[in-house]
Structure formats: structure tokens, C-alpha cells
Amino acid sequence: MKRSTLSHSLLNIILVFIESALTLLLRLDPELRKAAYPLAKQGTVVALRLYLPHVEVFATFSTKGVLLDAELPVGRSEPDVVINAYSIQVINAITTHDRETTEKLQMRGESVQVQLVKQFIMQLGLGSLIQGLIRKIKGGKAKTKPTDAEMAEKKDHYKERIKEQQTQINTLTIKNRELETTVKELQSKQKTFMIVTMVALVVMIGSVIALFMS
Hints:
Elements: H1 8-28, H2 30-42, E1 45-51, E2 55-62, E3 65-69, E4 81-86, H3 87-96, H4 99-103, E5 106-109, H5 111-123, H6 126-137, H7 148-213
Parallel strand pairs: 1-4
Antiparallel strand pairs: 1-2, 2-3, 4-5
Helix pairs in contact: 1-2, 2-5
Coiled coil: 155-189
Keywords: Coiled coil, Membrane, Transmembrane, Transmembrane helix
Transmembrane segments: 6-26, 193-213
């Protein structure tokens, strides 16, 4: 039975669109860039062998992004990781971001690189693109409705702030009263000093007059 295949020209057109989408995703999604970084650092080549339709695609991870081609890159005799799966399986893995669905994909290769590829697939998807676009449009400040737990935490935080401010106000009030008392005491001492000084001056002047008259 003849296998279902895609023409070379149609495949190249599809790969160009997918490669452009991947570039956009990597630009907008920091978590996806983080997942791709170790693969790009090693220059990992992944062979994706799909069934229904029968297609073989090679993905090369590099600092420029994820490069897609219908042939193995020049200078490479074999890929680092090989994925064998039906097209629907790959689509499900990308759209659901589910570990169990990704684990069902048949992968061959060095265990560490296989795990890195799985992490990249789980992070990949249209959801990442949409979230990235929202963050880009809103300047990275996409607003989401806070949960009940977050609201309760904020209320508790506000209550603590109010208590702290009330304590500060009470402390300042007490210090203000202490200062007022200190000022009054100083004023009272100043009056007493002035009276004593005046009395002393009067006594001294009187003594001097008495000496002159004697």
C-alpha cells in the first residue's frame, strides 16, 4: 500500500510558516527560550518522522532559532534525537502541554537530550504565542483577575500596614506630648531663673546704694 506523502514544494512552504511561527514564539515567550537554550547550546538536531501523512522533518536548534529542513543538515550523519509519531499525536502534545501526552511520543536518543526535547515540546504551543502577544501589547503587564487567596493575602497585608501606621501615629503622639511637657518645664525654669536674677540684681543694687550712703 502506498504511503500518504506531501509534495516537496508544499512541505517547504509549510516548513517556512512553522519556522516563522517558532521564531515569533521564541521572541515572545521567555520560558520557551529557556527550554530551547540547552538544545541550541549543543546544536541539537531532531528528526521528526510523522505518519498520516508520511513526512520526515529535521529541526536544528541554534542561536538563530529552530531551523527546519526536509533534509539532514550538512556535516551531520545522523540526528541526535528521533521522534516517531502520528501527526495527530504531535499536535495533541503541542496543544495540550500535557506530560503524559508528550511521554507517549516515541523518542530515541541520548536520555538527557530526549528529556530536553520533551520539555521544549511541553512549553511549545499556541497558548504561549497568545500569552506572549498579550504581554507584548500590554508592555508585559497583562492583568489577570486575582484569586480569592490573593485577595485575602492583600487584605491581610493592608491590615498589617494600617496597624503599623497606627502604631507609628501613637508613638509620634506620645513623643509630641513629651516634647510639649519638656518645653513647658523649660519655660517654667526660664521664668524662675529670670525672677531669681531680677531679685539678685535688686538686692545687689540696693547693697551698692547703701554702701555709698553710709
